[in-house]
Design a protein that fits this description.
It holds the Pfam family Exo_endo_phos_2. GO terms for molecular function: catalytic activity. This is Endonuclease/exonuclease/phosphatase domain-containing protein. InterPro entries: Endo/exonu/phosph_ase_sf (IPR036691), Endo/exonuclease/phosphatase (IPR005135). With 236 residues, this protein is an alpha+beta fold. The protein has one domain: Deoxyribonuclease I, Chain A, CATH 3.60.10. Helix content is 25%, strand content 25%. The protein has five helices and 15 strands. The strands form five sheets. The protein has a six-stranded mixed sheet with strand order 4-5-6-7-11-8. It has a three-stranded antiparallel sheet with strand order 1-3-2, with no helix packed on it. Strands 9-10 form a two-stranded antiparallel ribbon. α1 runs parallel beside α2. The chain is globular and about 50 Å long.
């Protein structure tokens, strides 16, 4: 997945042609592909991969629209899914000294889908002069997240401020099965903003919690303290 500037053949672009996906391995069976607001996707026999880009120059409603479309498709089709991209968000759990509205919206969305954070380590994915940040995220539904056997930020030159991210999905043998997943997550309608702020402040003060490796557990802890779980709905 790349953020692109010039349209090329055999790439799957989002509606604004800001991001694109290309399947390099011709042996991978493609079931379908498509595009939406701020994202494009390719569906294989085993999972669907989404490539996203959220411009920092657009308002928060633009990001919300992108996340809503992806969430509706993942839950509506009961997908095993990988979501990768540049969200230009600053959750404090991601090493930022101060969060922003985009960070809070993204954190809530990850919690709603109960996605696993696949980033490993604290290497910055975005570097400009002496400033580094983790803006590019790799997320996955729990079933596909368990199949990630390798993930790294590449040191290869990209001619961009963003680094290449390389990861490997362990292929299953046999016939793909219908996904059995309980989309429990958290009930965001009952979010306690006071508890949310208190839990977030605790994370910012705890330097050991601020790393990509511990983000998933940290996020779940914050959600547990600030809102109740939804009742599980089995899909499949």
């Amino acid at each position: 997945m790349i953020k692109c500037h010039n349209k090329q053949k055999d790439w799957v672009y989002d509606e604004d042609q800001d991001t694109a996906i290309k399947v390099m391995d011709s042996s991978i069976a493609i079931k379908g592909s498509g595009k939406g607001h701020g994202h494009s996707y390719v569906e294989t026999a085993w999972f669907t991969i989404y490539g996203c880009y959220a411009s920092p120059n657009k308002d928060i409603e633009d990001l919300k629209m992108t996340l809503q479309e992806i969430r509706d498709r993942i839950m509506g089709k009961n997908e095993c899914a990988l979501v990768v991209g540049d969200f230009n968000a600053k959750p404090p759990q991601w090493g930022m000294r101060a969060t922003d509205t985009r960070g809070r919206v993204l954190t809530e969305w990850i919690a709603q889908l109960d996605l696993a954070i696949l980033n490993v380590g604290d290497a910055p994915t975005f570097v400009r002069q002496d400033y580094g940040s983790i803006l590019d995220l790799s997320l996955g539904t729990a079933d596909i997240g368990r199949k990630i056997v390798y993930w790294e930020v590449s040191v290869k030159e990209t001619l961009s401020d963003h680094k290449y991210i390389i990861f490997e999905v362990q292929e299953e043998k046999g016939t793909p099965k219908t996904r059995q997943q309980r989309y429990q997550g958290w009930n965001t309608r009952k979010l306690n903003t006071v508890n949310l702020q208190r839990a977030t402040d605790e994370v910012v003060e705890d330097e050991n919690a601020i790393s990509a490796k511990g983000f998933s557990n940290t996020l779940r802890g914050i959600c547990d303290k600030s809102m109740p779980k939804k009742k599980g709905v089995k899909r499949g």
